């Protein structure tokens, strides 16, 4: 991970996402997922522009099987934006930098 994005787990999800005082984007991903790997540098780039406005975290669906079904994650990559502990937007699939910025700007 980078200084702008860090890994979370089923155990830390509540504290890192639901109880966060700023909006959080959760990247549901897996090591074997090609589109997830393609999305990673895009998220990194965008995360560096939203420092202090949005927290970016990654949840590996293979190692953390309890959280994804709670939020209807069926395919990856899935990005879910949480604000004040609630889901406000979901994006499934690979998107480009402009689409990711628009996804964030429309919901924060």
TrEMBL record:
Residue stretches making up the Thioredoxin domain: 2-108
Sample GO molecular function, one term: protein-disulfide reductase activity
Residues annotated as the enzyme's active site: 33 (nucleophile), 36 (nucleophile)
Segments forming a coiled coil: none
GO cellular component, as recorded: cytosol
Signal sequence, start to end: none
Domain of life: Bacteria
Cysteine-cysteine disulfides: 33-36
Swiss-Prot/TrEMBL GO biological process terms: cell redox homeostasis
Site (Contributes to redox potential value): 34-35
Keyword Ion transport: no
Alphabetic keyword roster: Disulfide bond, Electron transport, Redox-active center, Transport
Site residues, Deprotonates C-terminal active site Cys: 27
Family in the record: Belongs to the thioredoxin family.
PANTHER family found in the cross-reference section: GEO12009P1 (PTHR45663:SF11)
The protein's name: Thioredoxin
Protein species of origin: Aquicella siphonis
Lineage: Bacteria, Pseudomonadati, Pseudomonadota, Gammaproteobacteria, Legionellales
């Amino acid at each position: 991970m980078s200084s702008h994005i860090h890994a979370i787990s089923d155990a830390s999800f509540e504290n890192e996402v639901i109880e966060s005082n700023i909006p959080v984007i959760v990247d549901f991903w897996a090591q074997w997922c090609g589109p997830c790997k393609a999305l990673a540098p895009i998220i990194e780039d965008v995360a560096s522009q939203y420092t202090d406005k949005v927290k970016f975290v990654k949840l590996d669906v293979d190692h953390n099987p309890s959280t994804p079904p709670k939020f209807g994650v069926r395919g990856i990559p899935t990005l879910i934006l949480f604000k004040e502990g609630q889901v406000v937007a979901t994006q499934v699939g690979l998107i480009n930098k402009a689409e990711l910025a628009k996804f964030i700007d429309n919901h924060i």
